[in-house]
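Q: A small favour: would you put together sequence and structure tokens for a protein?
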Amino acid sequence: MCVRYTLHKTDAALGAISRALGVPLETPDWAVPRYNVTLTSTMPVVACAEGQPGVRAMTWGMVPLGERGKSRPRLLANARSETASTLPAFRRGVAERRCLVPANGFYEWKSAGGAKLPHLFTLLDEEPFAFAGIWDPAAEDLPEAYCILTSAPNELVSRVHDRMPVILTADAMVRWIGDRPLSDEEFRLLVSPIASERMASRPVSRFVSNSRNEGPGCLAPPDDAPPEPELDFT
């Protein structure tokens, strides 16, 4: 699963998406740096309206139809790419409402000695990217909302977790966004895990483990976790 990510360099992430799509995208005034994005956060998402990509404010966590109207509905942060195109909660989003979720990195937790130690995953040189997302339009008292597709992990992420978010770099962004029909083969290729060689990871402070915590401290080195060996994929 992917339940935490960081978008602390919004200009860089939206700039990368803008160049990939060949359209101007401006950072909204409300899009402040976020180091610990959690479920229910309102975040910038790039989605198409009348065929034109634009930056929209969306809430992380889609509400299934059967949960709507409840005081505390179940929220769907992720959709498994292996089944998303067939499940009622996700299939229309996969077919008609595919979006790009700007990001600078994501967190996963590794169990060690009875503790859960957070790790930050980024692309090499902290290259900005987008998660493959799908979204639901506003309905009744619900805002526009998105969720992030996940896949089996690559070798790097598998050392910490058994799932990872689908990461799209520039060459894949334009093929994902929108409502153009995707063949089964194209969909499979787009949601395949990015190569480990394109990624980096490091342990970070357990400060990020509290969903209420924000700020650069989320990216700080751990102060009480044992060092981990360097990972070499060459």
Notes: Residues 5-219 form a domain with the hypothetical protein yedk fold fold (CATH 3.90.1680.10). Residues 225-234 have pLDDT under 50 and may be disordered. The two ends are 27 Å apart (CA to CA).
